[in-house]
From TrEMBL:
Name this polypeptide is given: AAA+ ATPase domain-containing protein
Span within the parent record: 442 to 812 of 813
Organism listed in the record: Penicillium chermesinum
Sequence ranges assigned to domain AAA+ ATPase in this UniProt record: 116-267
Similarity section: Belongs to the AAA ATPase family.
Amino acid composition bias (Acidic residues), ranges on this chain: 37-49
Source species, domain of life: Eukaryota
């Protein structure tokens, strides 16, 4: 297991496959495979073989059923994201390279004073590229990518939540280098309510914090005991978290994130870059002037709002066709025009209000790093 798996196995481990059904409600789902599943292509067979290989060498102390659930639902495969896919955010990219990518690739250089942080928080408005950044970090550092949300770590089965969280960290060490990406960390770290379902999320929160502290300890000690080493490489596991509501994270949890990186809305030149990329391979006739107008009117839009706008505008030429769409040859579809964007701007509006934005700016000033 661990590094002896080599990059090729990890590449395959990262091949496409995600399931939406939470296996917590269907504990044996991964064993009960439907005929449709079985006729899927060879990639899937390869992945299954990888999962089985990992399962057969599972380090002691990791619950096999939880491990299977993590491997099937939480380890993300395929759809690699590279730095150049992300418009702008140069400061954040630089910070992530220095804090994660280089230390993972050259652990020998990053010890002592250069010891990397074990946790990094990405915060900012929704749809600004936080998830994309986390995926790019995993791709560029050749890490196994564990994508977690509070609900994926909460099982309604008594005691299962802790097992899941332990399996998550256990596998992350065994398959190191690993990135544990927690989306909407605010909901994992602020389980305040009561009731049996919330009892489960409280348990997963507590276990998460314990496991995370262990990682931090292992990294600080650097010298791992032989037992630790057998379990994998705790020094090359990083918790990367994202939130749209940084103010909801309690102070103790906030302090654990030594690095807090603000991911702001895209500035003028970044919007231009993104719009040009989106239009890149399209049949369109927007002039430079049109693009400048779009860049101007999308002030306040997030990267995801801009993507939604371009997608909606791209539908313009088809919408005008009505039923004729069904038999019009491809080469007779008119190009996308500025007027398509104009119509789309009526329905696609920025998801963050100026007031909302101010709240992020203030939090960033007080607690964050910019970039
Ligand atoms: P977040 O995690 O911050 O909510 P995501 O990373 O999930 O946002 O981005 C959502 C979508 O918006 C992406 O899949 C992409 O299409 C688009 N997007 C957001 N930010 C950028 C960016 N900086 N560059 C390119 N596309 C972006």
């Amino acid at each position: 297991l661990s590094n002896s798996n080599g990059a090729s196995v990890r590449r395959k481990m990262l091949a496409p496959k995600r399931r939406e059904t939470p296996p917590s409600s269907e504990p044996e789902s991964s064993d009960v495979r439907s005929t449709a599943d079985e006729t899927e292509d060879e990639d899937e067979d390869d992945e299954n073989a990888d999962v089985e290989r990992i399962m057969s060498k599972l380090p002691k102390g990791i619950d096999p059923q939880s491990a299977r659930q993590i491997l099937n639902d939480i380890v993300v495969r395929g759809d690699e994201v590279h730095w150049e896919d992300i418009a702008g955010l140069d400061g954040a990219k630089k910070a992530l390279k220095e804090a994660v990518v280089y230390p993972f690739l050259r652990p020998d250089l990053f010890s002592g004073l250069r010891e990397p942080a074990r946790g990094m928080l990405l915060f900012g408005p929704p749809g600004t590229g936080k998830t994309m950044l986390a995926r790019a970090v995993a791709t560029e550092s050749k890490s196994t990518f564990f994508s977690v949300s509070a609900s994926s770590l909460t099982s309604k089965w008594h005691g299962e939540s802790e097992k899941l969280v332990r399996a998550l960290f256990g596998l992350a060490k065994a398959l190191a280098p690993s990135i544990i990406f927690v989306d909407e960390i605010d909901s994992l770290l602020s389980a305040r309510s009561s009731g049996s379902e919330h009892e489960a999320s409280r348990r997963s929160k507590t276990e998460f914090l314990i496991q995370w502290s262990d990682l931090q300890r292992a990294a600080a000690g650097r010298e791992q005991s032989p037992r630790d080493k057998k379990e994998g490489d705790a020094t090359r596991v990083l918790v990367l978290a994202a939130t749209n509501m940084p103010w909801d994270i309690d102070e103790a949890a906030r302090r654990r994130f030594v690095r807090r990186q603000y991911i702001p809305l895209p500035e003028h030149h970044v919007r231009e870059q993104q719009i040009r990329t989106l239009l890149g391979h399209q049949h369109q006739e927007l002039s430079d002037e049109d693009i400048q107008v779009l860049v101007h009117v999308t002030d306040g839009f997030s990267g995801s709002d801009i993507t939604a706008l371009a997608k909606d505008a791209a539908m313009g030429p088809l919408r005008n066709l009505g039923e004729a769409l069904l038999h019009t040859p491809m080469d007779q579809i008119r190009p996308i025009r500025f007027e398509d964007f104009e119509s789309s701007l009526y329905s696609i509006r920025p998801s963050v209000s100026p007031d909302g934005l101010r709240k992020y700016e203030e939090w960033a000033k007080e607690f964050g790093e910019r970039g």
